[in-house]
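Exercise 3.2. Students should predict the tertiary structure of the chain below and write it as structure tokens, then compare their answer with the key that follows.

Predict this chain's 3D structure.
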Amino acid sequence: MKKLKNYQRGGIKREPYVSLQTKNINFPTGNKPGFGGRISLPFLENVNHGRSASGLRGEIDYTFGKGNTNLRGDIESTTSAGTLPTDMATSPKVSNSSFGLRGFHNQSLGRNRNYSLNANAGFGLGTGNQHGEYIHKDGLGGTSYNFGSSPQMKPYGDANISLLRKGMHRGTRQDVSGGLNASYGTSNAPNPGLRLGAKGSFGPFSANAGYNFTNKTPTAGLSLNFQKGGVRKYQGGGLGIKTGAFSDGVNTTLSASPTYRFPKLDIGAVFGTRGNVTDSHSEDKTRSVFTGANIESRFGNDRNARKYDTRFMGSLKGELGQGYQVNDSLNQWESENNSTKGLDASGRLSLGIGRPGESGGCVGAFCSSPSVRPWNASAFYESGTKNSLRPGHHVGLSGKLGAFTAEGNYNLQTKKPGFQVGVNLPLFQQRKTGGKRKVNKRRSRTY
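Answer key:
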């Protein structure tokens, strides 16, 4: 459920929002809860207050569950497995990640418009429900070892429809809704399978429960939604894709990051691969693949500074996701050679000088007035875990001019230099309309 706010003067409502969520993730012998979040970014939206709302949004979804060894003692004592390694998983790591576009239409029904028929459909790239290696009872007094699955981003499609009764709680003045929901998602969708159940919300909290007829398992989920403001809160922001290519003479890293930019903060997803692509005759074709989310906070001496003034600038960036290894020397994907490695992370601190710049009057990707070109030059320190996109400890210098970036660095562990080039591709930018916008406290009855 979303709160639609009316503005006193013009403007299209564009509200990014973040949801923290938990949901069931299925694996071959059961299911377990996963924890994560969703970022939803607005592209187009048309609101007929009190009657309907429709539009197109971009979505980034990531959920994971940590593996454990809780059943190791039980398997050792009741089967012929013998003594298991202390790190042998008996409940696997699970994950589901995706990014794509979603179109929606919400229509109010009833004499008092207290019902809402909501429909949406999405498509994009996703991993579907994935799991790591684990051992389990086979039902015959022995054990079976499951090698796990290799997360691969493949196209997905899904569709959802729900009929909800909506209103407002008298005591707390919170919006409430509840009703029936049906959905279908392909195997790589954020919610795969044919599902039927119920869903509801109270203020920022929402919940759902149902049954997955494809996997023949019950489903449940909870989420906490953060959404407020409008274009007045995010002037100077916009959606784009950051791309990069890095090489240290042995390994080459390629990455792409769909990112939403706020005035002082970037939030997005990241997908990349790292491996030896320089020696086509090498027998070792193992490479690392990383999917996850990133966040970057920018800071600097902005007091009394104009967009074209040079000033001190810095940033702190972090990435968190799942890294795993793939052996490309095989003729086909084999699970035992493509092992999931669990969570990986990296962090980067940059300090330097530059100017943030500013786009002119922009609608979509088209600008009608001159812009102030951004630039910066910085020194940085970066550290990452084994299967992150930038493992080890790095120091170096980086620069940016307009949409283009470049850097040179030195790996303190391997004692090797490296370089990177990249480009940031804007998809749309918020238009700064000027003047102070006030929010009308009156709310629409369309959710």
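Discussion points: Residues 72-78 form the longest helix (7 residues). The chain is about 0% helix and 60% strand.
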